[in-house]
Structures are given as structure tokens and as C-alpha cells.
Amino acid sequence: MMARLLFGVLVALILAGPSVWPGDRAALAADPTALIVNCHDPERNVVQKTRRDRCQGRIVSDAEAAEIEAARRAYIRRALTDPSPSVAPGKRLHGIGTGFFVNRDGWVLTNHHVIGNCEVVSVSSTSGESAAARVVATKSGNDLALLHVDLTPAAVARFASSRSIAGAVALVGYPDQGIAPIRPLLTNGQAVGMEQLTPTFRVIRFRADVRRGNSGGPLLDGSGNVIGVVFASINTPGVYRRTGEIVRNVGFAVPSDTAMAFLRTHHVPFGSTGGAAVAAATDGTDLLARARPFVARIGCWR
Question: Are residues 104 and 158 in the same domain?
Fold first, then answer.
């Protein structure tokens, strides 16, 4: 009964729409004594209004914050409305998800629901290269899809077994924050354990802020190994309507063991540790640096 309930309230994560990180227009950043400042995060290229003592990036003026925001908006607008003729001639970008390279021959793993209704699927590496991909195989029962693209990644993912998952985890992808991210972002989380959604589908349950656009991205252990493929989050309103409980920030991932079996079925080579997931060994900055070269942005064109 619980499995059917949870399966019914999962929400698929496909699109990453526009988001706005508002710049402060009160001219506070120009005042060196101001408590609230414009803080520029160079990794994500966003400006947030925050307390001076909490700014981990560079404090910028209102004018520079407005320039950064305008350039970011223009970039996203071009990406959403001006498809590259070489990738999807005559098509428009309708959705964004995440995937990751499993070897250097251009094999990419993502979710079935990310590419299921696409006329053309594109893969963009973090080095800035993009190309149309071929959908080689899908398995809707566990929401996996295998793509092949004529790109060579700077690095490839490495899998660890999800049999004994526990402790801190992280997901890397392109989550919707009101504007689709230009670069992949890391979100920290905590593994809860394994859960049986259907008689044939066992998944990883974890606590984290999972958003649209994270779909198809890797769930990482503390050493940066892939232990799952993120595919859904709890539908908070749906759970409340059915149970009266408010449940937030719960995500689900296809276990790495399931993903590795899928790759073996299609004779796709991949790297693995040969062991179980490990506890946190590096911080978020290190994990993002390790994952960024093998993470890819998946575009759905129609």
C-alpha cells in the first residue's frame, strides 16, 4: 500500500524554466558599512542579496549586479529561443534535464522521462560543446535512458554499489531556480535508505532540495562516485491531500546497481569502484569539481 501511495505522488522532473536572482536596487552595496550586499557567486554566475558576513563570493555594486543579471537573462533567452542549426534545425528547446558520461566514447546515461517526448535530444558538455544525440535504449520501468553522442568528455563517471548506502550524498545537475542554470550546480543531501516503490522497482530515498532539471543527474557519495540516478521528488501537495502530512525535500534515485545492470545489458563499458558507497570524504566544492567534467545538460527539442 505504501509503495503504491509513494509511486502515485512522485512528480517527474523535466523542465528547467527561467529563474530570477533579484539584484538589490537599494544601492546598499556601494556602502562599505551596509549589512545587506549584492554577493556574486562566480561558480553559478548569479548575484544574491545576502548579509555581508555570509557572502562567499565577491561583493558587487548595484550597477554590476544589474549587468550580470542582464547578461545571464540574455544568455538564457538565446538558449531557449535560438536553437543551434547544427543540433536541432527548425526546432525549439522545450525542456532541460541532466545526464552524465559513463565512458569516453560518448555514452550518456539519463532518465527516460527526460527524453521521452523529444523529437531531437541534445547533449551539452560542460566544456561548451553540444551535439544531437541518438537514443539507443530506454527502460520506462526504472526510468533510464541510454544516449550516444559524438562528443568526448573531459572525464567520466565512476560507479559505486548502492547496496549499503548511508550518510551524506550530493546531487549535481541543472535544477530550476527560476532561470535554467548555465553551469551545473551541486545540492547536498542525506540518504534515508532503500524503498520498494513497486514489486520490481527498488529506489534510493534521500533528503535534498530536488528540482526540475535535476532529473537524470548523478547522486554522489562522499568520494564523488555515482550511487544513483536522480529521477523524482515527493509531490508535497499530493502527499498532503492523501495523508494530511506536509513532506518536503524528499528525492528518489535509481540505484547504481540497477543503472550498472542496464549498461551491461546494452554492452556499454563503464568504470566502478567494485565496492559500496562511502561516507563523506570531500566537501561540496571538491565534489562539484570532480563531477562537473562528466555531467551534461540534456536538451529536449520539438
Answer: yes
Same domain for 58 and 140? no
Question: For the CA atoms of the chain, what is the radius of gyration?
Answer: 20
pTM: 0.72
Q: What's the CA gap between 25 and 63, in Å, rounded?
A: 9
Indicate the residue type of 35: L
Structural domain boundaries, residue 187 = 1-23+89-302
The stretches in the chain having pLDDT less than 70 are: 1-33, 43, 75-86, 234-248, 276-284
Residue 30: inside a domain, yes or no? Answer: no
Together in a domain, 184 and 292:
yes
Rounded distance between C-alpha atoms, residue 128 and residue 79, angstroms = 13
Q: What is the pLDDT of residues 137-164, one digit of tens each?
A: 999 999 999 999 999 999 999 999 988 7
Shared domain check, 68 and 138: no
Quote the CA–CA distance of 266 and 31 in Å, as a whole number. Answer: 60
- Judge whether 31 lies within some domain: no
Q: What is the pLDDT of residue 34?
A: 77
Dist CA 285 CA 44 (whole Å): 12
Q: How far is CA 33 from CA 2, 62, 162, in A?
A: 54, 15, 49
